Amino acid sequence: MALLATATTSTTGWVVGYVIGIVVVLVVVALVVPILVLAHSIGNEAKLINDSLTESVHNTAALAELNTTIEYVGVIVPGLNRGRTRLGG
């Protein structure tokens, strides 16, 4: 009888330890899975944002020539004004 009581007490500690270990693992999994899902979502959004920025760079590349256009306008507009003045307008 004393041997049976000792055996039961001995395994109770193991059972409690396993239960605590399983609970800790489940809590960690419950915390890590949403973080991984969010990281995956952010990764997908980052690809879309990068593609959009690449397209914006392509669409605005002509703005680099805007200063040249402004210089030519500075030459063309006075010439147009002279022409208008000569024509009486």
Structure description:
- By secondary structure, the chain is mostly helical.
- The protein has a domain of 61 residues.
- Helices cover 89% and strands 0% of the residues.
- The protein is built from two helices and no strands.
- The longest helix is centred in the middle third of the chain and has 58 residues.
- It is rod-shaped.
- It starts with a helix and ends with a helix.
Summarize, please.
By secondary structure, the protein is mostly helical.
| Principal-axes shape call | rod-shaped
Helix and strand composition category: mainly alpha
Q: What profile does the largest beta sheet have?
A: none
**Radius of gyration from the alpha-carbon trace, in angstroms:** 38 Å
Beta-strand share of residues: under 5%
* Low-confidence runs of at least 5 consecutive residues: none
Report mean pLDDT, rounded to a whole number. Answer: 89
Distance between the termini: 123 Å
Number of strands: 0
Helix content: over 70%
Tally of contiguous helical segments: 2
H/E series, N to C?
A: HH
Task: List its salient traits.
rod-shaped, 89 residues, 89% helix, mainly alpha
Secondary structure elements and pairings:
Elements: H1 2-59, H2 66-86
